[in-house]
Amino acid sequence: MTKVTVVGAGNVGATCADVLAYREIAEEIVLVDIKEGVAEGKALDIWQKAPINAYDSRTVGSTNDYSKTANSDVVVITSGLPRKPGMTRDDLIETNAGIVKSVTENVVKHSPNAIIIIVSNPLDVMTYQAHITSKLPRTKVIGMAGILDTARYRAFLAEALDVSPKEIQAILMGGHGDTMVPLPRYTTVAGIPVTELIDADKLNEIIERTKFGGGELVKLMGTSAWYAPGAAAAQMVEAILKNQRRVFPVCIKLDGEYGIDDCYLGVPVILGRNGVEKVIELHLNEDEKALLETSRTHVKEVMTVLDNIAAK
Ligand SMILES: NC(=O)c1ccc[n+]([C@@H]2O[C@H](COP(=O)([O-])OP(=O)(O)OC[C@H]3O[C@@H](n4cnc5c(N)ncnc54)[C@H](O)[C@@H]3O)[C@@H](O)[C@H]2O)c1
Q1: Does the keyword NAD apply (predicted)?
Q2: Domain around 35
Q3: Is the minimum distance from the CB of 226 to ligand 1 under 6 angstroms?
């Protein structure tokens, strides 16, 4: 039986659980939250949708009882505060680090073989927190941001070119924030280099909009996005459970790839049953390398903030 736990039954977690259920990605989905009754209620609501949308996946809720999560194949951690207007993702670090640490301890105790996907922000540094807490191999503790950032970029391009979003293939790298590294050189429309179809100014405008794509939604809604983030996390779960070996940008600790050590950054990987099966190393040009270095410096600074919190 395939079993997935989603911790945090808020906007992103509940959306992820819903996608996992209606697309029958896992046979059992356990939703956990610290707020009394919320996870149970949302799991029941998703289950009551099963006869309407015609799916078999079971959804179960739990208020902080991790025994129900035992032997999960994959655990998605979405617990933590989202941004409010005017906040950066990094402003969330102190509160969310404590939450991610305690949740990871509980997760590993009951599912020592699970692959853990982090969604909580600041994403790259929360992946660091979960990785050191879990003591699992780096290939099994990974962060979701790149699929979302790439999806935003692809959606904006599809709109500008008036083509189906399905036709846009793209990859982004770097940290989940304003220093993310879009790679127009690796962007195609059904195999056609995007630069042949769009002028440079418009492409740059789309890249800039993508970098601040999360903030655009926070400003509109007063909190951060959930439909695309929840679906993106579910897509990673699917690639793992079905051993699809899909190529996605995923946050992982770099161990020398791209000449970077000991930093958690988004890079293209092959995602399969063992988590990250391979980190793909692109041949970046000098400009792209410089952008990646800026991203690395920023993530490292926030990692140091976490180290100082932990030292307190
Ligand atoms: N990586 C990404 O691309 C991405 C995208 C969107 C949101 N996020 C992040 O995901 C997180 C969740 O966002 P959201 O919109 O779902 O927020 P939300 O407030 O709707 O939900 C968070 C949930 O976590 C729960 N929670 C808090 N502490 C907990 C604990 N110790 N154990 C279990 N549950 C706990 C809360 O009760 C709440 O229900 C935020 O940190 C947000 O910034 C990341």
Answers
A1: yes
A2: 3-143
A3: yes
